[in-house]
Amino acid sequence: MSSPGTPPTRLTVLAGPTAVGKGTVTAWLREHHPEIWISVSVTTRARRPGEVDGVHYRFVSDDEFDALVEAEELLEWAVVHKNARYGTPRQPVLEALAAGRPALLEIDLQGARQVRMRMPEARFVFLAPPSWDELVRRLVGRGTETPDERERRLETARAELAAETEFDATIVNHTIPAAVEELVELIRS
After folding, report:
1. Buried b or exposed e, range 70-96, using 16+ CB within 10 angstroms
2. 125: Cβ contacts below 8 Å, ≥ 6 apart
3. The whole model's pTM is what?
4. Judging by beta carbons within 10 Å of its beta carbon (0-12, 13-18, 19+), is residue 164 exposed, middle or buried?
5. Which domains can be identified in the chain, with CATH numbers?
6. For residue 41, which phi and psi values (nearest 5 degrees)?
7. For residues 16-50, b (16+ Cβ closer than 10 Å) or e, as one string?
8. What 3-state class would DSSP assign to 45?
9. In angstroms, rounded to a whole number, what is the distance separating the alpha carbons of residues 77 and 75?
10. Per-residue pLDDT of the chain in tens (189 residues, 90 and over written 9)
């Protein structure tokens, strides 16, 4: 819990274009700053190699996702890259904040906009690539998408980059450790 005289815990929302490194930044943060609570999103997309259910995402069926939406159990949700659905379970976020833990959501632009409508007091942080060429290199380099999926993601990334001005702060992801430390400073401020 927050002690008397200290401000209440504030939710931090991290968003940015596809392949900018949001997941890698979040994994580094999870490993090096366990005091920061990180939301685990639900998704209908297929699990990628190395992903662990309940750690990286909660992988659910379309029917399970529909049930979460119907019961209004998601703080936000969206269809991403014209393909899979992603969402943030509401209750764990509220519980972390009530317990006074610094809390982070790593979500896409559509989700960040929904959270801004529901929780305007949150801090919104945009994770940006050093350049467009570097973003393309990272997307191609991870080798997890088909050429069609890659093109769809790059199309989405152009729109996502244009939304940077909607955020309270921007962190340029030159290196993961530097980006994480800048993010931790923002979370703690």
Report:
1. eeeebbbbbebbeebbbbbbbeebeeb
2. 12, 13, 14, 15, 167, 168, 169, 170, 171, 183, 186
3. 0.85
4. middle
5. 11-188 (3.40.50.300)
6. -75, 155
7. bbbbbbbebbbbbbbeebeebbbbebbbbeeeeee
8. coil
9. 7
10. 444 444 457 899 999 998 899 989 999 999 999 999 999 999 999 998 889 999 889 999 999 999 999 999 999 998 876 789 999 999 999 999 999 999 999 998 889 999 999 999 999 999 999 999 998 888 887 777 788 888 888 888 888 999 999 999 999 999 999 999 999 999 998
Question: Could you identify the residue written with the tokens 């088909």?
Answer: 146
Chain centroid offset of residue 62 CA: 21
Provide the token pair at 38: 């990180």
What backbone torsions phi and psi does residue 157 show, to the nearest 5 degrees? Answer: -60, -35
Total length of the chain? 189
- Residue 128, both tokens: 């940006």
Strand partners, 36: none
Q: Is 113 exposed, middle or buried, given 0-12, 13-18 or 19+ CB atoms closer than 10 A?
A: middle
Rounded to a whole number, what is the distance in angstroms from the first to the last CA of the chain?
A: 16
Separation between Cα atoms, residue 88 and residue 114, nearest integer Å:
11
